[in-house]
Amino acid sequence: MALVPRVFLTAEQIHNRVRQMGEQITADFPDGPIYLIAILKGAFIFLADLSRTIKTPSRIEFIGISSYGRGKTTSGQVKVTKDLDVSIEGHHVLIVEDIVDSGVTLTYLMNVLKQRRPKSLSIATLLDKPDRRLRPVEVKYVGFQIPDEFVVGYGLDFAEDYRNLGDICILSEA
Ligand code: IMP
Ligand code: MG
Predict the structure, then answer these.
(1) Mutate to test the pocket of ligand 1, among 98, 106, 109 (most ligand atoms within 8 A of CB)
(2) Based on C-alpha coordinates, what's the Rg of the chain?
(3) Average pLDDT, the chain
């Protein structure tokens, strides 16, 4: 059966919400720099858009984490595949994530980064699927809460496809 992406959030809806999130983050962090740490690869487009709406001086970093194989469900195994290039000790850190699903990835990453003694550590996610949570994780900034559906586009993939879609789409069988 063919997989068909159906539009769930339009590019315009996403951009409006991302701008609001940036305004909130700017207000909450009057003093920079903030280290915006995007989790590869899914958060790269969200990071690009969000970072341009934040007026507080920011620095951009990437971290690679893998918790999924090529399918739609977690393998439960989390590891750092690309570490940060810098020390975050004494700095404000905002983890930028595409979607929080089970919470396994972020629980692991929060523990790893906390040990590096940042001044503050919080999370911004574009999407949140609260129904699927296995580990409680405190997410300070949430773009959209969504139902338990598999979504692609705006950086999110299914087996590396669909990341370049401008809209966020639900991937379902035709
Ligand atoms: P968690 O550890 O289960 O919270 O997994 C979060 C990661 O799983 C996200 O960073 C995504 O890479 C991936 N993921 C979870 N749900 C989806 C989805 O609906 N579409 C695409 N990727 C997803
Ligand atoms: Mg991800």
Answers:
(1) 98
(2) 16
(3) 94
